[in-house]
Amino acid sequence: METRSIAPGDPDYPPGLMMVDAPPVLRVRGPLVLGNRVAIVGTRKASAESKQFAADLAADLSVAGITIWSGGAEGIDAAAHEGGLRGRGGTVVVMPSGLDRPYPEEDDGLFDRVLASGSTIISGFADHEEARRGRFFRRNTLLVACVPALVVVQCPFQSGARNAAGAARTFSRKIGVVPNSPWEKHGGGWREEARLGAKLIYGARDVFELLGLPPPPSRQASLFQEDVLAGLPELERRIATAIRDGARHVDAVCDALSEPASQVTRALLALVLRGTVIEGQNGLALASPAPSRQSAVPP
What we know:
disordered C terminus, 39% helix, nine-stranded mixed beta sheet, 2 domains, Rossmann fold, 11 helices
């Protein structure tokens, strides 16, 4: 895959990187879209339960359109990336090495899956540079500078994840932490992060609050919307996507699509008549799935 450079001053250079010492030229594979995003990090020696939680949390966020950033390491990082690949938000891997010397070398095919899915791998190092101790800390700094918030899922008191949290505090980033059981050998760091003011994270809704975003739709509703969008004609799909992403009125949809109002209005009417789009008090919205009979409350 093509590798390109993004330098300070370029329009798609992450603005937060201008806060770090010696802002690097980024080496990038895949698209770099700076929309709604969050970093999820944690220990390499994570418990199975913590890795599952990280993957499910990342998937819920990604299905709702949040891009998951992390450092590519085994454990929590890898689980977060895998979860990010399960939704439209995708994931961004921030390497502690050059792109031609990926770390870890044994990644179970994760980095190939990231690129094959249309997600992104970036590095602040020259392509040939290997991962070394100091570069892990530099990678953590670059990672948290690129995002508005960081979530720590599991970490010991002294850990790379807490180093990332310290960098996040330096840049005034928002921090969330997932509580761990007291018997978790590698989970004791969460108490100190909570003491320092990190928001307790129990699920995707807490992360949306951390980011200052409205509550996410349920995973069922989000998956339902993805299925509906996939089956629409092109213009209707683009209109429905714009509405899903926040366009609440016809004018906003026209602006998002750069299409004539007459064409948008006709296609929008078809969506409303079909029941795909509804008009409510707050404007246009995608319809939600009807509850199943199994989940209905009996009379």
